[in-house]
Amino acid sequence: MDVPLHWQLAKLLISVGVVLGLSVIAERVSTRVAGLLSGYPLGTAIALFFIGLELSPQFASDSAVHTLAGFTATLALGGGYLLAARGDGLKGVAQGTAGGLAAWLATSSLLTQVDFSRLGGTLTTLAAIIVFTWLYRRVPDVKATPKGGFSWPALALRAGLAAGIIFLITGLAHVVPSAWAGVMAAFPVTMYPFLVILHLTQGAAPVATVIKHYPAGLGSLLCYALVVSLTYASLGLWPGTLLGFAAATLWLLSWMRVQQWWAGRRS
Fold first, then answer.
1. How far apart are the first and last CA of the chain?
2. Are 67 and 124 in contact (CB under 8 A)?
């Protein structure tokens, strides 16, 4: 179907706004918080919503079932980026991107061969969260240094990457099965451009910190995808989206409260 121009503009504006917000948090607050918020249902929500808008709520609901397992591929992307990025600057970004995308594609190819249920997809990603959290346990926390605003080249790069990924995912959803559409919806639409900009401006160390804390934030994404898979077809896109965000926010607030309690016990 032909996609109306105002839908395309909405994709662009929302994608750019989210990436800019994450960058502000990383520079003004902390990379740890930014890593947690990278797991909030931002890019996934944009992708699934527009897939439902352009195709059908039922197709988006079916896709969301595979999104639950697709977050495992997102974790693989972060791990591949971390392993491959051996330096700063464009070379480090290119190495990280190549390693991350290779890991994502290999994992996604395996996941799309499985007929996941909601329970199976959720358990798969929960197991991956535990594994990657353990693997990242020795990665040091490094704060980003405030840079005092955005440059026009950085703004253009953020806009191009975020919007391009969203347009690619929602465009391919028209020609691929729901399994692939769901896995693609789990792609870190907002986190990847954020990693690239952070890597170029701050170096590899803060990027490693964001990747380290990303698995902890995936619980909210799982909650969102689960609720959407249950509500899009029955309630519609807007109610399903609002309920999904409510569930994701509740999980994230609960997780932060647990972390505060645990930190208090250890101090």
1. 58
2. no
The two three-digit tokens of residue 163, written as one number:
């919007």
**Which residues have CB under 8 Å from 125's CB, separation 6+?**
68, 69, 71, 72, 75, 218, 222
For 199, the token pair is: 């890597």
Tens of pLDDT, residue by residue over 16-29, are 777 666 666 656 66
Closest CA to 82 of 71, 69, 93, 67: 93
Residue 30 burial (CB count, 10 A): 18
Inter-residue contact 40 to 252 (CB < 8 Å): yes
Region of residue 112 (phi > 0: left; psi between -120 and 50: alpha; otherwise: beta) = alpha
Residues 6+ apart with CB under 8 A from 174: 1, 54, 55
Each residue of 136-195: pLDDT tens digit? Answer: 999 988 876 655 555 667 666 776 787 888 889 999 999 999 999 999 999 988 788 878
CA atoms of 34 and 18, how far apart (whole Å): 12
Helices H, strands E: what count in the chain?
Answer: 11, 0
- Integer Cα distance of 257 and 262 in angstroms: 9
Q: Are 87 and 95 in contact (CB under 8 A)?
A: yes
Residue written as tokens 């909601």? 118
Token pair, residue 105, equals 């594609």
As a whole number of angstroms, the distance between CA 155 and CA 169 comes to 21
Q: Which tens digit of pLDDT belongs to each residue from 62-121? A: 999 999 999 999 999 999 999 999 888 899 999 999 999 999 999 999 999 999 999 999
- Taking the C-alpha atoms of 249, 43, 242 and 54 in order, what is their torsion angle to the nearest 10 degrees? -170
